[in-house]
Design goal:
- This protein is mainly alpha-helical.
- It folds into two domains: about 10-60, no CATH class; about 75-220, no CATH class.
- The chain contains eight helices and no strands.
- The protein has helices at about 10-15, 20-25, 40-45, 50-60, 75-110, 115-145, 150-175, 185-220.
- It is globular, with a radius of gyration of 18 Å.
C-alpha cells in the first residue's frame, strides 16, 4: 500500500487500522488531531514525512486487526462496543492509576517533583472522563441506538471535550518522561508508567472511533 502524506491521519487509520500503532509509536495523534494531514503532523513533531510513510507502508502488510468494520456496523453496535471496550476499561483503569500516582508521589515526590503534578493532572483527567462517559451513556448513545436525532451542537461540545482530553494526555506524557520504563524508581512507579501508556493508547483509539467514525456517521444519518 502506498501512503499519500497529504491524507489525514484519521483517513489512514480508517482505511488500515493497523497504522494506529505506528502513529502512536511516533507520537502522531490520529484521534483529536486526526484532521491534520500526515505531512502536517510530521512537521509539528519534527519528523520526516517520507521516512514515516516508509514505516507505515512496511508495517501495513497484512496483520491481525479488528475484525469488525465499525465504519459500516450499526450505530447501536458501535455504541455498545465503545461502552464495553473503552468505557469499561476507563472505569477500571482510572481508579487504579490514581492510586498508583498517589503512592508514587508520596514516596518519590521529593526526588521527582513532577510526580505531584502528574498525580494532579491525572485527577483532572479522571474527573473529566468519568463525567464524559456517563454523559454519553445517559443521553447520546441511547439516542443514536434508537435512531433519534441529536443536535449538531452536542457533537461539537463532545469534540471540544475530546480536545481537552488530548491536551491532558500530552501533558501526562511529558510529566511521565515519555513513559520510559527504564527511569522508574520502583515497581509502583513502573506500573504507573506502563499503565499511563496503556491508557493513552486506548483513549486514542476510543476518541478515534467517536471523532472519526461514530459522530460523522450519526451526522450523515441526520443526527
Amino acid at each position: 500500500m502506498t501512503i499519500d502524506p497529504s491524507r489525514s491521519l484519521a483517513e489512514l487509520v480508517l482505511e488500515r487500522p493497523a497504522s494506529a500503532r505506528v502513529l502512536a509509536r511516533l507520537g502522531l495523534d490520529y484521534c483529536c488531531g486526526g484532521r491534520r494531514s500526515l505531512a502536517e503532523a510530521c512537521v509539528e513533531q519534527g519528523l520526516d514525512a517520507a521516512t514515516v510513510t516508509v514505516f507505515l507502508e512496511r508495517d501495513l502488510e497484512p496483520v491481525a486487526t479488528e475484525s469488525t468494520d465499525w465504519a459500516s456496523a450499526p450505530l447501536a453496535e458501535l455504541c455498545a462496543h465503545i461502552v464495553e471496550a473503552h468505557h469499561g476499561r476507563l472505569r477500571w483503569d482510572l481508579p487504579r492509576l490514581s492510586e498508583l500516582a498517589e503512592r508514587a508521589a508520596a514516596v518519590h515526590g521529593d526526588v521527582l517533583p513532577a510526580l505531584h503534578e502528574l498525580r494532579d493532572e491525572l485527577a483532572g483527567l479522571r474527573g473529566e472522563l468519568e463525567e464524559h462517559i456517563a454523559d454519553e451513556e445517559r443521553a447520546l448513545f441511547p439516542a443514536l441506538a434508537a435512531g433519534r436525532a441529536v443536535d449538531r451542537s452536542e457533537f461539537e461540545r463532545l469534540l471540544g471535550e475530546h480536545d481537552t482530553t488530548g491536551a491532558r494526555l500530552r501533558r501526562l506524557r511529558e510529566l511521565g518522561g515519555g513513559y520510559e520504563t527504564g527511569a522508574a524508581l520502583c515497581n509502583t512507579h513502573l506500573a504507573l508508567l506502563q499503565g499511563l501508556h496503556g491508557l493513552e493508547l486506548d483513549v486514542h483509539q476510543h476518541v478515534h472511533e467517536e471523532n472519526n467514525i461514530l459522530f460523522p456517521r450519526a451526522l450523515a444519518a441526520g443526527g
